[in-house]
Specification:
37% of the residues lie in helices and 23% in strands. The strands form 2 sheets. A 6-stranded mixed beta sheet has the order 6-7-8-3-9-10, with helices on both faces. Strands 2-1-4-5 form a 4-stranded antiparallel beta sheet, covered by helices on one side. It has a domain at 243-281. Helix 4 packs across helix 5, helix 4 runs parallel beside helix 6 (146-159) and helix 5 (117-130) packs antiparallel against helix 6. With 281 residues, the protein is of the alpha/beta class. The structure holds adenosine-5'-triphosphate (ATP) and magnesium ion. Magnesium ion is lined by residues 44-45, 168. The site of adenosine-5'-triphosphate has 12 residues, from helix 1.
Length: 281
Amino acid sequence: MRAIEVRDLGFRYEGSQDWALMDVSLEVESGELVLVLGSTGSGKSTLLRCLIGLIPHFYSGDYRGTVRVMGMEVASTPVHRLATRVGMVFQNPETQIFSTSVESEIAFPLENLGLPRDEMERRVEWALKRFGLEGLRRRNPAELSGGQKQRLAIATVTAMGPDVLLLDEPTSMLDPLSAKEVLELVVELCREEGKTVLVSEHRTDLLAPHADRVLAFAGGRLVYDGDPRGFFSEQRLSELSVPRVVELYWMLRSSCRLEGPVPLTPEELESLISRWIGSGA
Ligand SMILES: Nc1ncnc2c1ncn2[C@@H]1O[C@H](COP(=O)(O)OP(=O)(O)OP(=O)(O)O)[C@@H](O)[C@H]1O
Ligand SMILES: [Mg+2]
């Protein structure tokens, strides 16, 4: 089933001269893990806002085209209805946490959904366990580390049971170890929980090998829509953060004439180098 369908989408923020997105058409199948790339200001956050309904419901501006998520047309569906099928995690965990305990943070949006008490409790328990937050349930979220806060934000959104999860640079405020944990969770949400996941992320090392697709933006236009290997096989990536194995590959390719397809994992690079040494090139 098709989770997302975007046709000729354009958006210009009120008061702005330039279109933040222009002529964007794309489709995402259910269960896909999609990496959204592009340099700063290229339109990644704007796309995600269009998918969750923040645009056009909360941001004003010129809006063109159609966006459908889980069969709902975003522009004509109330945000509270969209919120039952689509969830979003933002860059800064500080701005998305409101409650005084971890468990009430997860429970709060469920209360707003009007779920029966036992279903609510079941979901809170599931999320605490699934996201490794059981031991922190009575802690004040303000006291958690950045990584724990981001895990809580993901748990809170996931407990609402969305089919589609959008994550806008979820690790940019985290240390490398917490970032790795959060990104591993993102992969699991797709592979184990069957969520459709779109993640905009500068740390591509961990996601590139797992992603089904890359959507790359430049100046508000979709400039690449395809598999990650195809994307990283092109040498027009200089302004983007590419996985370190990809960087190393291109260095070895230009300096030592290394041959073969671009690797996405250290293991793939290792076997490429072994074969290259074996061939005596
Ligand atoms: N709230 C806003 N009001 C006006 N213009 C905005 C607003 N948010 C973004 N823009 C503009 O829209 C364009 C796309 O921005 P967007 O935030 O979508 O890019 P991005 O790819 O997410 O960048 P970054 O990597 O810095 O997060 C930019 O020109 C930006 O200045
Ligand atoms: Mg952004």
